[in-house]
Amino acid sequence: MHAGTVFLIQDLSQRKRGETPGFFRSQFINVEVMEHGLDFLRGMTTRAARHPSFHQTEHAMFQFTDKQIERYSRHIILPQVGGKGQKKILSSRVLVLGAGGLGSPAAYYLAAAGVGTLGLVDNDVVDHSNLQRQILHATPDVGTYKTTSAARKLHKLNPDCRILEYIMRVKSGNILDLIEKYDIVLDGTDNFPTRFLINDACVMAKKPLIHAGVFRFEGQAMTILPGSGPCYRCLFPEPPPPGLVPSCQEAGILGCVAGVLGTLQAVEALKLILGIGDLLVGKMLIFDALEMQFRRVTVPRNPECPVCGEHPTITKLIDYDEACELT
Amino acid sequence: MMPTGTKRAVMNFHGVKCPYNYVKTKLALEEMELGQIVEVIVDEGEPARHVPKSITADGQTLLEIFKDEAGLVHLVIQKTKEY
Q: Does domain B8-78 have CATH number 3.30.360.10?
């Protein structure tokens, strides 16, 4: 989690409901924060169905097998899903960047839901220290590539789901080609250089992005629909300098907090696929496990955002130097 | 009242447990045009109680319900609402 967000969370946690909305400024925050319910962004469309860049392949001819009817029955029963919605899920393509603490629960629920194509990107191998939270991996997987370990579990869970492994690190030179093949990108990465790169690439490619980050007992999630709502840089224009990033020793994480946030990312992805509900567009959801509290803060679009503003100054992807991996 | 002489599809869900009998009925109704009629055969007991309740909750119309000699329950359903 961004150092500025920690500040923001701490500040919010000290405020009481009904207080005047605040205006927070720090080196990395320039965002008006309002209590949920006090204000909504005027004219902003957060309904998934209205997002113009989200198109799906034809699924009208799809017929369910008896096994699929059984597997997806609890979805089909839902009035907001039905057979039509389940077909949308089965035709959808989601790219999960990072098969770790966030990517594990997200990918597991998305595969269980029947997402047609699930891309998994990670260049790391499973380590013993991952097993406390990265629930797709188990002790015998130590030393195996995370994508391979994850794909094995996901295929066992749901053979309907096509799993594509990308053993690689995303960089400015490869990310656009990668995300182009997918309907939705889910950011489960653990470092600021990659997070900013993913944000910029999704804005430039107009690709829906579901962001989440975790730190210690806290987490945050936001959905970015380029053209419809703010992006990550509207909130944090630049990555923090290395000195402000918590050191490795400071950057512990309660494993299940990653589970909560990764699961929320899967929920957002499915709502987006189905075109139902209100998305976290222009809203950051902040989870505090110690207080057991969710707070939602509005994030307006920044007209001066360097990547999605009226006069963008970032028009080419940037590979920032690695500062420190947080989780 | 059910229109006489109307052609309708018949789907036999004898032996199909809840909720799959309802799920299959719903999937069929989703593909049908408004006004079209389907006859669904379910087992008596739980299926005969639950399927009509669920499809009417969806906004569809149960035109007729009757039991045949074998004890199976026939539900004549007209699609009156889009899913």
A: no
For residue A72, the distance in angstroms to the closest alpha carbon of chain B comes to 10
- Model pTM score: 0.83
- Provide the annotated active-site residues of B: 18
Q: Predicted ipTM?
A: 0.89
Q: Which residues of chain B have pLDDT under 70?
A: 1-6
For residue B1, the distance in angstroms to the closest alpha carbon of chain A comes to 27
Q: Measured between CB atoms, does B26 come within 8 Å of chain A?
A: yes
Q: Kindly list the residues from chain A whose CB atom is less than 8 angstroms away from the CB atom of residue B20.
A: 69-70, 73
CA B74, B80, B82, B83 torsion: positive or negative?
A: negative
Nearest to A77 among B23, B30, B31 (CB): B23
Query: The tokens of A107 are what?
Result: 């990918």
Report the chain B residue with the minimal C-alpha distance to residue A63: B27
Helix, strand, coil percentages in chain A from 3-state DSSP, rounded to 5 = 35, 20, 45
* Longest alpha-carbon distance in chain A: 57
Instruction: Give me the count of residues in chain A.
Output: 327
Q: Chain A closest CA to B53's CA: distance in Å?
A: 13
A325 pLDDT tier (thresholds 50, 70, 90): very low
Residues of B in contact with A84 (CB under 8 A): 30, 83
Domain residue limits, chain B: 8-78
Q: What pLDDT digit, counting tens, does each position of A140-192 carry?
A: 999 999 999 999 999 999 999 999 999 999 999 999 999 999 999 999 998 89
∠ at Cα A280 (A237, A270), nearest 5°?
125
Partner-chain contact A83 B30, CB within 8 Å: yes
Which positions in chain A touch B27 (Cβ < 8 Å)? 64, 69, 76, 83
C-alpha span between A227 and A46 (Å, rounded): 11
Residue A305 to residue A270: CA distance in whole angstroms: 28
Length of chain B as a residue count: 83
Q: Measured between CB atoms, does B18 come within 8 Å of chain A?
A: no
Whether A142 contacts A224, CB under 8 Å: no
User: CB–CB of A327/A190 below 8 Å?
Assistant: yes
H/E segment holding residue A297: strand A293-298
Grade residue A23 by pLDDT with cuts at 50, 70 and 90: very low
Percent of chain A with pLDDT over 70: 78
Query: Which of A73, A79, A84 has the CB atom closest to B23's CB atom?
Result: A73
